[in-house]
Structures
1.
Amino acid sequence: MLVVVALVYWPGLGGGFLFDDFPALVDNQQVHVSELSLRAIWHAATSFAPGGTGRQLAMASFALNYALGGLNPWGWKLGGLMVHLLNTLLIYFLCRRLMTLAGWHSNQRLAALVVALLWAVHPLQVSSVLYVVQRMETLCLSFVLLALLAYIRGRLAQQAGGRGWWLAACVPLFLLALGCKESALLLPLFTLCLELTLLRFEGATLPQRRFWRWGYAGGCALALVLFVFVVIPEYSAQENYAIRDFNALERVLTQLRVLPMYLGQVLLPLPHSMPFYYDDYAASSSLLHPRTTLIAGVLLAGLVCLAWFLRRRLPLFALGVLWFFAAHAITSNVIPLELVFEHRNYFALLGVLLSLAELVRQIPVRDGPAIKVAAVMAVVLGVGALGAIRSATWGDRLLLATELAALNPQSARAANELGVMYYQMAGDSADSPFFSLAKREFERQSTLPSTTILAEQSLILMHAGHGLPVDPAWWARLKQRLREQPITPGTSAALFGLLGNRVDKGVELDDLEIDESFVLMFNKVSLPPISYVQVAEHAVKYRGDHALASQLLDIAVEKGRDRPEQLHLLVQMLREDKQPALADELSARIASGGSGTK
């Protein structure tokens, strides 16, 4: 099984970095450790943005990749494949346990092998395994699966009258999973689903049974209170959705359509149904806009009711359904995440496969089991072939870029990826036909409904970088988008990309346009103090605009009141950049607490 999985993904190891790989890993200098010392690894482990307070274990694994092979993506993707192979093995053992609990007495080992293999080679998993940054998700699941195995073993020991010492292992495994990604918080929900279907809160004694029933009842009550009074007010606030073009209610309504789409991708994994980029996915404004929102909601409610009704008769089917919904409990909630991502199905896929396995087992076969086995093997071969094809596509960056742009021509992200690919193929020659292809793709990107300032940023940089005229309309469109669109992390990254090319690489750009663009962004969002100081330094150095610089320094001091040590580091940064006057001004404002100018 592991050899087959490795062969399916091996062609995909030749691909490149993609999308969030760049800000999180490629451009994150803290991950680029040159030695495997404890201090360097810890520095990298705490480099996850925002805040540097999470996902330490995953970030440390990326630092290990850099120390061993630099920025060659092959090694990074190989690390992701190794984690996936481990998870495949754990899925197999978990399926064996679950099928035993569900009363499977024949073909159990073969059935577990088939489910694990289908889970591992399914085309939907390719973007989780070969998209490097998603090792956060896959490594998190490694510890979650180990915790589930320990939980089942401990509970079965209890039910047999022994001591459930294995339950104690769930705590450190949960903490390790949490050190990879916040998805680990779903572990108690997964175990609740186990109790509702297969374990049924049983124990060797009445006090044990009461403990588990009342324990989970109390936990659910506490979770509900926290959700209503903490999570909803904290995450659904309008200011948290300032970076999105939808609100919390629209996000939750949209998930009624997204979850059935995921089910369709699992059941019929055709290439055109998995475009990877979903930035053009339209949000639902109500249950009837579009009407498919209500239809999808009824479908999902019916599926949950069916699972609840069959939880005793077909417990494995019910568990699979409940695990599918539980796996999406965070990403399909009020938290202001993007609407759709394929990697959110990394564990949810197992739930669907378990339900299908139980249904297949219930199908009566008049002429013996051979025909059922043959049909299942045909499905495995078909899914494996589709997975291998998608993996091979991911193994060629140009092929992947053209494929994603063709699958979703309305995706601005896909268009940008293809434009960047063409630009890189042009080398340093503006006369190359690939330069013209890149310009055409960026211009097409700028016309798409889902586009951001990234299209104009790319056009400006590619022309200015080669000494070609920059169309004033590009700057005008860029500033118009800053006025009208939400300021997303990608927007600020694009603007600071312009600033970096001007300051660090000496690209001749219109400095007045740069400063005006930053002012438009600063008027809509709050950023760390260093952002304002960097723009203030640019305003003084390139335009002599001390008035704007003073205003920005005031804002930086106000934003950094809680962390004065950071402000003093900014003073030092200005001195190192040979801006003593600006450093003295910032130091004086720190001492006086700022003038309050906004």
2.
Amino acid sequence: MRFPSLVSLGFILAFNACAFSSCAKPKPSEVSFFAEDGSSAELTAGNDDSVSGFLPLAKDGKLRYSLKRPLTLAAYSALEIEYSYEGPEADRAVVFSLDSEPSWALPPDASFLGFTAAGKTTVRYRFPITGKVVSSFQLETKKIARTVTADLLPKDGPVPGLQLKSVRLAPRVYGYSISDNTLFLTPFVYFERGQDAIRFVVEPPANFPLAGGIGAYFLASSVPGKLSTGGQEYRYVGRANTQGDSLLSFPAAALPANPFPIAYESKSAPRSFIVERSRAVPFPEEPITADPGLILSYRREAWRDARYEVFRWECFPSILIFDTANYEVQERLFKRLAFFVEKAGYRGHLASDKDIAGLHGWNAHDYRAEDLAAFFESARKTKFPLNVEERELQRILVAAGLVRKVLVSDGTEAFVAGTGAVISISRESAEYLRTLFITHEGFHGIFFLDEEFRRFASERYAAFDAESKKFLKAYFDSRRYDVKDTYLMINELMAYCLQQPLDLISKYFGDTLPTRLEKDEWRKTMLPPRGTGILPYPTLSEAFTKTASDFDAYVASRWNMRAGRAALIYQISRTKAAR
């Protein structure tokens, strides 16, 4: 369904300029006009009604305005008209005309999007303009095909009319936002009501483009939905335990280069759905906000640095996610940290490149703020030479508040822990591993931040049977984890249980991992007796499946995440044209 008054008025009406030379002497207007930078511009009224900005709808009429000094427009500008409709319905609509631009009918409410009007509401209607200068504009009534009987018109009550409040230049966007007291609306957005869902579509014509990178965001509820754009489809699973709506963003590079039409479909309408040009975000000081599922499909050619990109997890803003071009870049950022924080025999020590040259770090990483601060403080105290990427990492962490600088007694700046965590994956990993790694590392990041989650994981580890725990330590020891660190063991048990869907757990722990240890003369003694069924180690399968199910139920109830999925958005289809 499209805005009916626009349809009935021909959507974009021909402009009929006011002959200002025949107007009365201009007077100062009470209506405000703002430039795009927020500064006010002097506005004069062309007739008496224009002084107050009230346009009666019971008869034909006009409001006429001119700017004392014409304003030059930026590229891809828009004009936002703030107004409210007063009194009962009338048989006239209001049309806004700007200099030589097309004219636009001003909707009285959001009923053209399927929202029921409730009480007096301020409307902010923003539409695109293409000219280079604005100097004058007008509002006038137009007869519409609505029957209003004489007894509905006011006698002693309020006169039906439009109260113009302000006009401002603004960046071009498309979509809508619904709140209790204000409606933000634009043209080129419409809805279609299906049997089980409502579909909102943003589709501007070619002559009113949004140039550059185009992103979308909406206020999403706990109700799942689907975003379709340029041959791609994304599933939004909804959020658990949300109090009201929460913002969900689709960064420009997560969408195809030609995204229109962009449609969102759900059983309930989001209160906001906006499509806009993405602003330039400085690298590396400001991470790009995104859900982990969108980072996996983020277009690499849009990275701000060819080596790596930095993201901020939308649900957990103090968790930064690094995606690197390859393992070499990832190692320059994090390998030394891996040995300093987790590797047996190296923990707490800064290793030179020569010392660890033949050793493997990790293909994915996770670090809490306390360990990050300890690493950089140790390097500061010992004057240890950090590489280029490690120094960049330090600046990123300080800018994001994960690491803080404080003055110490000798007048120098020391590094102390802030709040948050860092995780990392690489484009060199196969696609299925990238999904597994971002899930595994993502749950590590949440573990670092959430005390209740850590308590739950500690309880599961304590309840884990001795035989399975002995195997777990043997396996982690083979991976060069420091198995004497109980905090680390609890964290890794949790992440290994949640890194893949539940239906893969049984074989992974009942076959894949323990059979790897059979080739190790010492560690194979940590395995339980072999079984005689399909799985060689059924007791491990049973123990880990039970524990993984417990973790899965927990993260589902807390965050609507699941074993195998830390993301709330994931790509479900991609056409050949979109690849």
3.
Amino acid sequence: MNVLQSRLINWLTFISICLFSFSSQAASFYASVSKNKVVKNEVFQLRIVSDQRASSDDIDFTVLEKDFSLGRPSFGSSINIINGSRSNKSEWTVSLAATHIGYITIPSFELDGEKTQPITIEVSQDEHAPDINDLVEVQTQLSKSNLYPNESALLKARLIIKADPRRLQNPTVSPPAVPGLDLKAATEANQYQTIIDGVEVTIVDQDFRITAEKAGSYQLSEPVFKGTIVYGSRYNGGTRLVPIETTPKKYQIKVEEKPADFKGSWLPASKLDLTQHWLDSNGDPIVTEQYQANVGDSITRELRLQVTGLTQEQLPNIKVNYPAAISMYDEKPQFETLENGDVVMTIKQVLIPRESGDITLDPVTVNWWNTNNKHQQSTSVAGLTLQVKASDQPLAAVPTPVNTPPQVNTVTVKDSGIWPYLTALFASLWLITLVVAWRFKSRTSAQQLQVEQSVTSSSEYEAVINALANADGIAICAAINAWIPTVQLTDEEQAELNEKLNKINQSLYSPQPKAIDTKTLKRLIDAIQKQQSKRGKTKTESLAAL
């Protein structure tokens, strides 16, 4: 081998070593993609591999966010030892989906001075891409667009998810917005599954109440859905990451000025209904304009106010003035919101006449502004005339026995001998027997009357005690009214009983109910009940003495 051949071999060896070294260096850190021709939103994989030991945060993928939708990167590392030779491997994998069409370049990544080659991706339009409305749809309905100050409108919102909810990623729903007006959720969100046009869908319903504060023009935007749906194409078997953001519908709301000539409390509503029911002490309806009652009877007046366009807080406080002869006890108003957004307020008033005679209960009138017809309006319910008579408290009548003395025929005997003495003796014994028999009979009747009164009084007394224990105002009135005829009351006891009963009822049914104390009333009733045994015994003894 000559010198020239030797030099040529050395040169070729050097070139081979250089090429091998370059190839090894190029292959030590590189990037690759699963495909470089995709359609918009189609998912493909980016893979970066290094033969160096690395950590997951050594590669920053945020540089891709301006052109791609990114999945969560995955990272793995391994160490291989073969025949004593040790090697490392670090690998990153991330799912990408192009957000626009055209040629998009994945930039070079760097690790410890080594760089990957940039990769160009060709992105085309997907002719078979689903429309947003085929995946998610927002439907809204506004009850009214013209309002008055303090009036409210109801926005019914429905979100329809037509794709599998499990394919949703990072879904968010922005609530409706209307700057300048008060907006609150009127109901909780209600989610359920149903079928529309043969397709199973997920629906979320929620109502919102918009309340006007001052006159002006305002714009309402319906809720907005944002998220990403993983969508599989049936044409090429590829997977799409379809970003979704619904375009909100706009509503124009105009708030009118409050009428300058309106008088009274401002109550704007598009609809207002006021109804009532009268009930007697047994709970039966009263349907006549005049009703006969006794002193102490309870009568219930139930008022029901249903309003469209107002909130619970804006409903009026209905007050009725009753005559002094009537004791009135208000229950706490009950509120209910109907499915159509109407608010219902129910008021119960317990009325108890305290005096006899004709008593007129006034009608109830609510003045309001009809926002549909734009004029002031009044809605009323009729009153009731009570024909009250004194409460009957019959006492058991005890018949007075009438006994006619026996007639004694006197026979004149000329020679009477011992017979007059014997006759007088037997007559005296017979009279004594009659007196003893009558006294025994009278005492038995009086004792029987006492037992009957005691049993009746005990039963009614127990009903009063039970009503007091339950602090039931209506039950207390009814039980005491039933108990009074079974006892004997002095004028002082009757006055004290009425006073304490009124205080109890006022505590129970005042606009701001307070904790009641029935102990004082119970002590009075117990004292009266104990006095009845003494009074009953005295009466029995006086009857027996007859």
